[in-house]
Design goal:
There is one protein chain. The protein is 29% helix and 28% strand. By secondary structure, the chain is an alpha+beta fold. The protein has a seven-stranded antiparallel β-sheet with strand order 2-3-4-5-1-6-7, with helices on both faces. Strands 11-10-9-8-12-13 form a six-stranded antiparallel β-sheet. Strand 3 and strand 4 form a beta hairpin. The chain starts with a helix and ends with a helix.
Length: 308
């Protein structure tokens, strides 16, 4: 153990009055599609890359920053503070299917249902509100260093917040406000909707009635404008309504890039180029600076989501 850590054990910082301590768990949990092979050396290398300085594993000599332990629990010492990394080869919830049924957003439902393993980063010790924020910044960076394509969702046990992991999650976790990764929603929510809901029928009818407005605006588009449509994608057996960033329109066809990952369709993913006929569009959106035109179904779907 390093000299500074040894001195810290001899002269620990005074305990704070209980009224100044925030006793909520300081932790982030990554839900994984499948178990990983983890050891102290792998974690130490990830942390060394993240902090751009050597993190020892196993503990050697007088190292102040190190990782020790073995599956399923590892102890991490960074800047003379201690953290635990836990990794278990089982679902985080006792009954994932029951938990999933209580979630209205379908992507989160699938993430809960399909995850087979989990990894948590926990702060060891008590903290004031200010120290809590600082601890979460370190936890955020540790979690970001451990993100991989197998991570499907992130969870904060203290608040119960749950969100999908996407291409922006790592950057948010490394920011000064890592908990925003639990709030950010970079993709439109996907919720189960009955096609005979009169509110949705009216919204789709309005979007189609005003479709010529979208066509004219796209023909006269400016560089600072963006154009999107929501359209049916799939076949007779399986189909989903998804948003597409429009890059071109010609002869009754819309060309563009998919704005979100499908729930059930596995042949395409966010960012792929797709084309759809005009007749499969049920909503559209124009963004011109701070001005938003269209999006007729968005408020309706939000109402339906709140009712679930």
């Amino acid at each position: 153990m390093g000299v500074l850590n040894w001195l810290k054990d001899l002269f620990p910082k005074p305990r704070m009055p209980r009224e100044h301590v925030d006793s909520r768990l300081i932790s982030l949990v990554l839900l994984l599609q499948e178990p990983r092979c983890l050891d102290a050396e792998i974690i130490a290398q990830r942390l060394s890359d993240e902090w751009d300085r050597p993190i020892a594993a196993p503990l050697e000599g007088m190292a102040d920053d190190y990782v020790s332990g073995e599956e399923p629990t590892f102890l991490v010492c960074l800047n003379h503070e201690f953290y635990l990394i836990n990794h278990f080869s089982r679902p985080y919830m006792d009954d994932p299917q029951r938990v999933a049924r209580r979630i209205s957003e379908m992507r989160l439902q699938k993430a809960i249902e399909r995850h087979q393993s989990w990894l948590s980063v926990d702060y060891l010790g008590e903290a004031t509100t200010v120290e809590r924020a600082m601890a979460f910044r370190t936890i955020g960076r540790i979690a970001a260093s451990l993100l991989d394509q197998d991570c499907v969702a992130i969870f904060a046990p203290a608040s119960g917040q749950l969100n999908l992991v996407d291409e922006q999650t790592a950057d948010v976790l490394r920011s000064s406000q890592p908990l925003r990764a639990l709030d950010a929603n970079h993709h439109p929510p996907v919720i189960p909707v009955y096609g005979d809901d009169p509110r949705l029928i009216a919204a789709v009818a309005k979007a189609r009635k005003r479709w010529p407005q979208f066509e004219r605006a796209f023909e006269n588009r400016q560089p600072n404008q963006s154009f999107s449509v929501k359209a049916r994608i799939g076949n007779d057996h399986i189909a989903e309504f998804m948003w597409i960033t429009v890059t071109g329109m010609e002869n009754g066809w819309i060309y563009g890039r998919l704005d979100n990952d499908p729930i059930e369709i596995t042949s395409i993913r966010c960012g792929d180029r797709v084309r759809v006929p005009f007749g499969d569009v049920n909503d559209w959106l124009i963004i011109d600076g701070q001005t938003v035109i269209g999006g007729f179904t968005i408020d309706v779907l939000r109402q339906i989501q709140n009712e679930l």
